[in-house]
Amino acid sequence: MTDKLLKVQPIRNGTVIDHLRAGAGLKILDILDMAGTGNTVSLLINVPSSKQGRKDIIKIEDRELTESETERIALLSPGAHVNIIRNYSVAEKTAVEIPEEVAGVAHCPNTNCISNNERGAISRLLLRNREPVQLACAYCARLVAEEELQFL
């Protein structure tokens, strides 16, 4: 029976996002906008984990994430690890954390907020609580829960 298991192949160059909250993988692929990029993407969902119980893993070939993309991942799955792979080896490993301020990543849900109505205004969300994730708009002070996040 073990002969028929499909194994995920290692990647030569790219990014592996590990220790994602179970169920967060699809949302993260959506915010990374991977459709149509031409990159090979592997998504493992509900993988057994000794530390988390269950976790998701994303492997993206031939692409390294930007700082903005890493911040988006942190908002949906704090504590995830982003591993940069070069020549089949881990070149960099970073545990993502929610920064104290997130600018230009997500909208304020308040439709009357200046960040949604003023030309050239950049949305700025300030961290209020890490667990559960709660942010506040720097302009109107509206509290934003994780499930309310609308990414740019």
Write the layout of secondary structure elements.
Layout: E1 14-21, H1 25-32, E2 41-49, E3 53-61, H2 67-76, E4 81-86, E5 89-95, E6 101-103, E7 106-107, H3 114-117, E8 124-129, E9 134-137, E10 143-145, E11 150-151
Antiparallel strand pairs: 1-3, 1-4, 2-3, 4-5, 6-8, 7-11, 8-9, 9-10
What does this protein look like?
The protein is mainly beta and 152 residues long. Helices cover 14% and strands 39% of the residues. The chain has helices at 25-32, 67-76, 114-117, and strands at 14-21, 41-49, 53-61, 81-86, 89-95, 101-103, 106-107, 124-129, 134-137, 143-145, 150-151. It has a five-stranded antiparallel β-sheet with strand order 2-3-1-4-5, with helices on one face. A four-stranded antiparallel β-sheet has the order 6-8-9-10, with no helix packed on it. β2 and β3 (53-61) form a beta hairpin. It is globular, with a radius of gyration of 17 Å. The N and C termini lie far apart (46 Å). The model has no long low-confidence stretch (mean pLDDT 89).
Main beta-sheet annotation: 5 strands, antiparallel
> What would the average pLDDT be, to the nearest integer?
89
Rounded to the nearest angstrom, the distance between the terminal CA atoms is 46 Å
Strand order in space, largest sheet: 2-3-1-4-5
Q: What pattern of helices and strands is seen along the backbone?
A: EHEEHEEEEHEEEE
Residue share in helices?
10-25%
Ranges where pLDDT stays below 50 over 5 or more residues in a row are: none
Q: What is the 3D form?
A: globular
Structural class: mainly beta
How many strand units? 11
